[in-house]
From TrEMBL:
SUPFAM superfamilies associated with the record: Clavaminate synthase-like
Protein name according to UniProt: Cupin-like domain-containing protein
Domain JmjC: 114-275
InterPro entries tied to this protein: Cupin_8 (IPR041667), JmjC_dom (IPR003347)
Pfam name, any one: Cupin_8
Amino acid sequence: MTPIRELHLSAQCQPGVLPRGLVEAAEPVVLRGFTAHWPAVAAGRSSDQAAVDYLGRCGAGAPVAVMAGAPEIDGRIFYNDDLTGVNFQRQDAPLPAVMAALLALKGEPRPPCYYVGSTTVEDVLPGFRRHNDLDLSAAPGGSDALVSVWLGNRTRIAPHYDLPDNLACVTAGRRRFTLFPPEQLPNLYIGPIDFTLAGQPVSLVDLNQPDFERHPRFAEALAHAQVAELHPGDAIYIPSMWWHQVEALDDFNVLVNYWWRQSPAHMDSPVAALMLALMTLRDLPAPQRRAWQGVFDHYVFQADERTAAHIPPHARHVLAPLTPDGAQHLRAHLLNRLHR
């Protein structure tokens, strides 16, 4: 594993302002001290109690969804042994009660784990962004970012990818990020894609105790892995589709992240295309799969201005650049076919 590239605050990297060109490079970057000016970070650096008190002053809105696991799982939010279920329970609770429980468990050598993930900040901490926010105007689509809070004790979230670009900001506690480039997918031994822990498929390899006899290709993934440990005030940019494991290393941890897509809102998730391809293409005879691979290359992956240049613009239909109306027409056409 190699360290993730770092930027420190300078003329090229201002506090809370995403540097221009960073997103276009599509490479992970650690931004040291990027949110050190946040009052929430100052509280997190002071003490866990100060962090809880500060978040409490930001207001408590809707209950939060909590993943709760027994001490035996050692903080690893994961499947059960035979992949028929999960090793944690889901429950809802008020955020102040969750934070009080985490403080009460501090110092326990092997506590139960509590993990609050991907919770919209405006819903549960409506006053947070008034004094703790970022300028993402330099990122295509960044102005429409979804801001979420993640909170818990010592937990491990298995390697997974996110479709949006991700800027994760450590606010309290320390977190270790281990990243793998998208092309390492075959070496990560990904689990089910339609039965997931929290929406995204995850690697079945335990990074803390990898079994190379069972997962021999994972050694190649590790050779391409990048790692960094972040402290309160640090942030990390994780490009779309990069696999990442996130470990919370302390008894109390808070992270705030910004998700945004560089594509227009009328574009559906590519996961829908993957699911349809599994239903329609994967089990075809090999020669037909190769033929369809060529079709997809021509119309999708290698498409350019020449693809439909021989068709008059008014007659290109779905081969024309996608518009909101075109996307709506395509969606209706697909639903029609699926309902047959």
